[in-house]
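Q: Protein A?
A:
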Amino acid sequence: MKKGKMKSGTYLGFMFTLPAVIYMLIFIGYPMIENLILSLKNVDVYTFAQPANQQFIGIANYVELFMDTNSIMTKSIINTLIFTVGSIFFQFFIGFGLALLFSKKFRGCSFFRGVTMISWLLPVTVAGLLFKFMFASSGGIINQFLMALHILDTPLDWLLEPRSAMTAIIVANIWIGIPFNMMLLITGLTTIPSEVYESANLDGAGKLQTLFSITIPMIKPAIMSVLTLGFVYTFKVFDLVWVMTKGGPVNATELVSTYAYRLSFEEFLFSKGAAAANVLFLILLVVGCFYIKLINDEEEAM
């Protein structure tokens, strides 16, 4: 009877998961396989509608992407890493500070926490346009503010200079991602029993000692989740950068996502665009596997 119940439970569980499996195979698995096949062919605007003329060239598209004298692909990967690390660093520390603040009970806490969520709820394209106007060389509020503080003497062309353009898109992405970090970390903070803090207080532990000896170790799984998911979300950012700079100036803010889009839908080199997208997928796959391993290690430790 027990074996029969186990089998029926297994079949029932399989039937519940079957719609999700079918959905993933059709809308995720099939496009991924087609994209991989496309990256191994030579498909452009002339041969896109002529499958018979689509020549199989193996990994030539990948080799060409990385072996060019001035490889934009390599530069886009470096730019994406700079953009991702710069964004995550400030998003995490600001989000963690706000999480510590809003985990306390004080008048207006719910209101200010809700206001902080506006940047996360706002569509990314709208946020991109907002920051594009803010960083504008003429009439932009950033230049006006810095000139009023006498930090700048003349307006700076933020989005037309390579270094300042990267800074601008990082600042915009930090503003968007802070609420995501804050909410996940607040959730982690709520799992810490109040008795632990009371015991630490009775033992004479200071605030910094409590933070580093109790709070951070006890929300380590939440911190790892925030950092890993933040890396994945930031590494594949497209719309914000495309709205603000379109990868310019002179490829200074060209990310892997924007480069793949440019190859496919502006230069109509569909196979190269697919290859660039697969490079992005491979990097995120490695990060995803690392995240799953961390989760499994945490569960085994518990």
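Q: Protein B?
A:
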Amino acid sequence: MIRIAMMVIKLFLKVPYYLYRIDRSGKAEPFDLEKGFSWCKYATIKANRAGKVKIESSGMENLPSENGFVLFPNHQGLYDVLAFLESCPVPFSFIVKKEVKNIILLKQVIAATGSIAIDREDIRQSMTVIQTITEEVQKGRNFLIFAEGTRSKEGNKLLDFKGGSFKSAVKAKCPIVPCALIDAFKPFDENSIKAVTVKLKYLKPLYYEEYKNMKTTEIASEVKNRIEMAILEELEKSN
């Protein structure tokens, strides 16, 4: 968490303004996702510069030309969403566990991006969230979902992807975009303020015609395999 402290200290005079703008965006009537997302992106870019975090993103040409898709990355740590907020060229909402929904700043970002908290212990609430995501994706909204359910604590190694995480995408018949995060655990999970580079690769999407006859567990396995291969290729380049 030492890097977070450095970010706050360096941006001490600006943090209240960023928080104010993000908070206002989340409370605006009518809700404007593009405006809220743009303020979150702006603040994220400033925070990354202050925290000496560089994002190297590639594969943006793989993003569907039309909105209404779901990003499925591996989950490495608390920093992950910030990598997407800086690099993703189109607005998206994300899914978070209910335990973190009231944390200062994260609470405001959740509201400004129209993101949703899920209670994994409450089956009824989880089903409601799945249906909400399905309907919003069909309307042209993009989502980011961590299919591992929880962050891996083994660096660039992945946990199993949960089939249930793909139910909304399948019901919406939308493009599924695998995303490979490399070294995203380093900014916040390592006790260091040395400059660090996080890599984010947007991989080729799976379209409904490709996965319509697959079980969600099979889709999960395919997405995981694609991400693992992309991470392995990237790590081999670095060696």
